[in-house]
Input
Amino acid sequence: MKKIGEWAILTESGSKLEPLWGAKHTGLHNLGNTCYMNSVLQVLFSLPEFIRSYECAAYIDRCDLSSPDSDLKLQLSKLCHGLASGEYSLGPDKVKEAVLRDEGSQPGVKPLMLKNLVGRGHHEFSSNRQQDAQEFYLHLLTMIERAHRNDNNPPPGNLFKFCVEDRTECAGQVRYKTRNEMFLPFNIPMEAASNIAEVEAFQKHKVEVEAKGEMIPKEEEVRYKIPFSSVVENFLGQSTIDDVFSPALNAKTQAKQSARLKTFPNYLLISLSKYQVDSSWQPVKLNVEVDMPNELDLGVLLGSGPQNGEVLMPDEPAPAAKEVVYENEETVSQLMEMGFSKEGCKRAVHNTKNSGLEAAMTWVMEHMADPDFNEPFNMKGPAKKEIEISEENIAMVMSMGFEADMARTALKNTDNNVERAVEWIFSHPDGAPEAGGSEANSDNAPAAVQSDPTQGLTNGEPRYNLIAFVSHMGTSPQSGHYVCHIKEGDKWIIFNDNKVATSERPPKELGYLYLYRRSDV
Output
């Protein structure tokens, strides 16, 4: 079989694709490097549950239209109507020739207000640069979760959210912790490639050709072929992490960590970690093919929790070591006789832990120019400064729908950082003492009540069917182009910005993000 280049494969440009029109076959106009956004939105709005969440008419009748550019629900409802209605996807028999674009496509919906709203305040998504589709997916679902926080029903993003069980083992003890995630990342074990010899031969040939000043055509490129079974096996393994505190040793040590799933969501997004950092610390994409299956059984990933015979690590952290005060009047006096101030000499003795005159003298010579060298020495260190909260940051947090008091408390607990403050609010839904008297600094603060991490999440049998995937072409997530393929009945549809057509050969071996639907949904 003749090999063809990645771009041609993913866009199926070598085939005469049949254009599609009508409901659910509406393209999205590229607003300037927004193919990453278009691909993610097409996949999300291909799901009936997502469409039901944003069916437009009923929502628009009860929403506040005074500030539509700040209403995420409204913008998503408008987009939902535009994509599902077919009003913006008329066939060539119903639209003037002048409206049609290349290859018979229409401009499609232009989600400019949604793009501006989602990117507002974000240093990347507010720009016109190419972005990572996975990062946009997470950012959008986070915004959706905030927008629906006061709803009676779980937010639409809970369709994808699942609970992960992390197991950490060190010094003969184990700890189990849970966290919720929106996608399942799979690293790619390059050593498991089934055609290593073939790739090495190609790379050797490529070096020889390029040494002559020539180039190998893209269609002759040979990629690593990775079995999906090896990807899963790699995930099941343990990773080694450093600097883990062990209550058994009362010290930091190495530990082994593994992850399993406690719940299996209605829709599971799998991300293949195709990007690595090269020797110059630049992101590059692995040139691989992974044989992603149409049907998936992830029963091997089911977490089992603590086992009989395991020794669990205590939850209590090690008691903080009391600061030892080092002060020796004799050494201080000897240093003062050399002409240094008493406060500076006290600093020297304390910071060298009373290890002798020579060490203290060396410290003095290195620090005598410090601005606080002659200031009164406080053994307990400088008092913590009062955190100044800017009104601008309070307003930014409030613009996301939070009360002023909650915004102010969150900012005080996160050093006036807006992004961290929003995350703090979600992790402290009932509020918490302010910084300076917070649970982190109060010996009498009550222990946090741990809610059920699986509450509100969908769950069922760990068997899935592939229904969509997003592909990226290019060498870096900050460049190139994104398209998506969505399954409709027995056929696949390709969405390439405003071009929508029947797919002849969906290239699922070259995808980046894969959406699976649980078989019992």
User: Anything to note?
Assistant: The chain is about 30% helix and 20% strand.
